[in-house]
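Worked example 2:
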Amino acid sequence: MFTERWDEIKEKLLAALELAPEERSAYLAQIGSVDPDLQRELASLIASHKQTGTDFLDSRVSDFILASTGCGEGSSFIGRRIGCYQIVQLIGAGGMGEVYRAFRADDQYCKQVGIKLIRVGQDSHAVVQRFRIERQILSSLDHPNIARMLDGGATEEGLPYFVMELVEGMPIDEYCNEHRLSIRDRLELFIQVCSAVQYAHQRLIIHRDIKPGNILVTGEGAAKLLDFGIAKLLDADAGSELYQPTLAPFQVLTPGYASPEQIRAQPISITSDIYSLGVVLYELLTGRSPYRVAGRTASELSWAACEEEPENLSSAVHRAQPEKTESSTTTPNEIAAARQSSPKKLSKRLKGDLDNIVGMALRKEPQRRYASVEQFAQDLRRYLDSFPVMARRDSFSYRTARFVNRHRFGAIAAGLVAVALLTATLVTLRANQVAWEARARAEHRFNDVRTLANSLLFDIHDSIENLPGATAARKVLVDRAVQYLDSLAREATEDPGLQREVASAYERLGDLQDKPNAVFSSLGDEVAAMQSYNKSLNLREKLARTKQANAGDSVSLARIHRLIANAAADSGEVSSAVEHAKKALAVATVVSEARQGNNTAAESELAWDYMALGVIESNGGFNSIGLSEPYAAIRDYEKALAIASELLKNDPDNASLAYEVAGFCERIGWLQAEYGNRPEGLCKLNSALKMFRTAGARSGNARLPSTVAAVSSIIGLALEMDGRFQSALAYFDLELATFKSRAERDPQDMMARSDLSGAYYDVGDTLVKMGRFKDGLPTIRRAIALDRELVSIDPKRGALRSLLAQHRVAEAEALNKIGAPATALQSYKEAYSLYQSLAALDDQNLDARLNVSATDAKVGATYVRLGRFDDAREAYMRALRVSEPPAANNPPNLQAQYTLADTYSGLGDIAMHGARRTSNSSEQLSYWREATSWYEKSLGTWRVIPNRSVISPSQFDVGDPVKAAKHLAECKAALYKLNNPL
């Protein structure tokens, strides 16, 4: 009908919209007497127009009409097949998207679904990005009162779409009126909506567009929350730059339901959704808007939301409706009848607790509303069960009245007895009153603390995180948040919802304090971060033992074990890192195999757990059980890559997943390059760099330059291993420019300064290897100066001390090359002391002990240059004792092999010097034989090292097997001459 009669429909529809409501009914009746089908279409379009008339600021009626009738641009999708679904009808449209009815058309099974697409002509980059965000958010939600996402993809034109559960229902306000639901039934239905919103909030998702049109009620009476098109994610871990809070250049909201802070474009939190829920509940209970405005324009509604205090529910039901409306229930009598009551009874029912509950949800100041939707729903449940509510000021008479309402018959009998006992109980009653008042005050204080802690972590901190020089202010906010969270944790013992909330907040707090390898700027407080992670772990473990635990709790438990493992490995506590990495992997494996809840989250966590285990394996974390080898790490990285790649295959537009895949490729490439397979490793690293750039550019990731710089540094190191110093320098220069700019923006950013130190070292060490000592040595010393500042700030941080040791070794190498061995020896000795202190932290930290051994070899070589041969021999023998066992492992430890090759050659040099210093032929023969043995051992070790490099895995310069072979030939010639005199 639409296509053939569009001109007639449009003409009559526009004419009807110009009429007053009473005139419009007569006009439609007149049309119906001639053409009933046309009357029904017009009535349907007018009802839809009324529902969506204020959906977006500056929306136009004509745009809506075109979309609703299917006669505009969107109608081109009707009859088309998208994926395995056939589109048959347009069933809804908003400012940027359209929803179509479709059915499964591949003969696999019969199913009707809803398909949401971007409206043709609205496919700007920002709109497409916002649409993808909505799809990603829906994919993470699985709740009986939220319309489920079933599938997703892209059309032939490249526009994204998603398939969702088809909800056959009515907007919640229309459903309640048509079914004449009582106040109790309306509240029960509204509590279902609260459950859905609370579920989203627990996953750090704010809906931001809660209104009756986005809450449909099915024929079975189940509420379904729809349309997460302008939702906001609070957590930014996980490629969080994909989720931006608004769409430029206009602000998207629904006047009449948006909170004051939304209208003013201020930072929002979960309390914004609570305000919108309050408006919806106000209308469900009273049939009136909380705003007493003459019209329903966007500007009038926005002004009222920000400036006007809502009228009490009990008074609003008597209010005459000032605005024009097509509703048939506008008089107080009609409103009361739709709620199975009279105006007087309805006003009495709404007065008191419900006035206060809705009033608390609608407070202008976000911090004075309910701290969570769960609290809002609990207050409504308390009201329905005749218990005292939190929103009302406590008093003895109030609590007594609620008690009597719960126990009417028992109260009458007890009243007869109470008359006789009244005098004796006065003192007790007074004490009870004081106790209840104290409890209420404590409960209010508790909610204030809860709101403030969340505000500090998610709103205020995030708003200043990227401001130059904000580190000091961020630390103050985080320190305050610690105090508030500790207070909340003491109250969370019996409340699973609060346990989850506080555990997530502690985790977020630990990330901000010091998250290893984070893409954002942490505060560099390693000890505080570990304390916060352990507090989160304690709550997660308690929750896992309760009956209320679910699959999401298990995923969260695995994640906090992984974060602790990463932090422990970063600080050199390898045994603790191993323990928590294994626990994370075990928990995530069970959840993944069970395929419960959001399995995507479980699979993603499992990939990261394999990654964490691989990091520890690659650093020698399992030497005590024979697993100290890079190939175990590569296998675990490849398992992580396989999982993440499969997830990305199913969700190709997910930039966060693309980052994960790139990160796993980077890890595999580096280990391959580090342990001998440099061509394949460099290929993998360059692929990872390309993936990072593509995903970052697509998502608008502000931290892409830092990621590119970090990967460039790794590619530079791989090139340096092959002696390709000029090529490596180009990558290191890029790294230095990026990290220098970041550190200059905020000199107090510990992570930025640490990255800058590493960049100075990379450039300076490469210049020294190229023979440019005058440029290279000062650059290395700039790195050392930065290291000393960082260590003085946080002397217990193992990673900073390891960095300083590495850079002192590079300084010593440069000094030896310019002929200053005595000065070089002092640098080596400081590095030796630092590495030794790290090894003492954990006797399983093979990586630290091998760095001690490699430094001993360098100290020995320097003693040889200084002619201190006894000291040199002692240093070399210490190196042998540490390096020989892991070099004999199967597979052998590569760093240990490089150290042994240099140590054996150094001991050969000492023996050769001994042979040259003595004139005794017998002693000469002994020395030459000893030197021959050491050089043969050195060359034997060199021969089994795959694809030899000019630097070791720990980035120590290594010796030259050609030089060792030359010395061996010299030794054999001397022996031959001694054994065969003329």
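The CA atoms of residues 283 and 289 lie 6 Å apart. The chain has a mean pLDDT of 79.
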